[in-house]
Amino acid sequence: MLCRVSRLWWALCVLLCFASAAQTEELLEVNPGAPSEYRVKSGDTLWDIADMYLSEPWRWQELWAGNPHIANPDLIYPGDVLSLRVPKGGRPQLRIARGGEVKLKPGMRVTPLDLAIPLIGLDEIGAFLRRNRVLEQEQAELAPYILASNKQSLLSAPGDVVVARGRIEVTSQDDQESMYGVYRLGSRFKDPLTGEVLGVEARLIGAAQKLDTSPTDTELTEFDVKSVKEEIRQGDRLLPLRERILDAAYQPRAPEFELQNGYMIAVEGGVNQIGSLNTVILNKGARDGLEVGHMLHIYQAGARVRDELEGDTVTLPDVRAGLLMVFEVFDKSSLAVVLKASRPLSVMDKVKTP
Q1: pTM of the predicted structure, to 2 decimals
Q2: 156-176 residues labelled b (16+ CB within 10 A) or e (exposed)
Q3: Predicted local distance difference test score (pLDDT) of residue 31
Q4: In this structure, is residue 329 part of a structural domain?
Q5: Residue 311 CB-density burial (10 A; 0-12 exposed, 13-18 middle, 19+ buried)
Q6: Residues 6 or more apart from 153 whose CB is under 8 A from it?
Q7: Does residue 288 carry a pLDDT above 70?
């Protein structure tokens, strides 16, 4: 049981996402099939609910403005009843009933956190975060690497000892017993327009623990192998394992700028077609202004058609084909999850500010 300051409405209204200053005068469109009343059930996600009610589910600020009784956000739980009200000529309002309509205000709620419905189904993203990383080129080159094992074999099983070469920083006594991931460097991600190297794929293939018998004044360090997914080879890199937890309290919103020349440059798993909940890599990152929670529309290049009357070829406008959310940002690239796909997507589809 965990004690947490209530956030009931924020998590839902945050998912009924962003409206920029330029959008405030536009009509907030409620989906024609949106139910006037809906009981939250186990297995729902906040994104599903937001998408059920609004045609542009990131325009949450307008919904918030129409609900001045909301004093503080909270989480939403199975069994809660959502009621949609659309006053004539007014803004839509979404209210909640939990054993009767409640006024939302700051307070404490003691409940298992995993009872609250999540932002989206995070299994696919969580697996990616545990398996893979995107490293800066210099970071990849300077990371300590496997030199040899005590058995002189490629495959290291749990209990084997491997020797790594390279300086391993130790900042505290706890670090001396830290777990390290064994990573296989993979593809280099490049910007499709400039050719700049944006990062290097690092795929997790095992885990090892630094032995406290290793001297700290040498570039050779012994590690006890704890787990392996495939053979550990000379040259595989060692990096501290970091616990990356996806926060259910994301703030999905559109960037406050027009993203230029954004593309999906790779997809996790190397599949040919990209669909909902696939993890993709973008060629834009923190230096371009992207932040965790930013929503982007996915566009496919317009077809080229022959104009028989004019005798020339015309490129049609780009076609909107999906929606994604950025969930991890690096300096030159970022990771995103596809939330909607109205048609099969592929690498090199464009991403733009909604």
Answers
A1: 0.69
A2: beeebbbebbeebeeeeeeee
A3: 86
A4: yes
A5: exposed
A6: none
A7: yes
Encoded amino acid at 98, one letter = R
C-alpha 342: how far from chain center:
20
Which residues constitute the domain of residue 111?
2-95+104-115
Q: CA–CA distance from 241 to each of 116, 206, 214, 227, 282 (Å)?
A: 28, 10, 19, 13, 23
Half-sphere exposure of 68 (CA within 13 A, CB side): 1
Single-letter amino acid code for the residue at 15: L
- Number of structural domains found in the chain: 3
What is the bridge-based pairing of β-strands 220-228 and 295-300?
unpaired
Q: Determine contact, residues 189/174, Cβ cutoff 8 Å.
A: no
Residue 14, pLDDT score: 44
- How many angstroms separate the CA atoms of 191 and 283, rounded? 6
* pLDDT averaged over every residue in the chain: 76
In a shared domain, residues 232 and 134 = yes
State whether 210 and 181 are in the same domain: yes
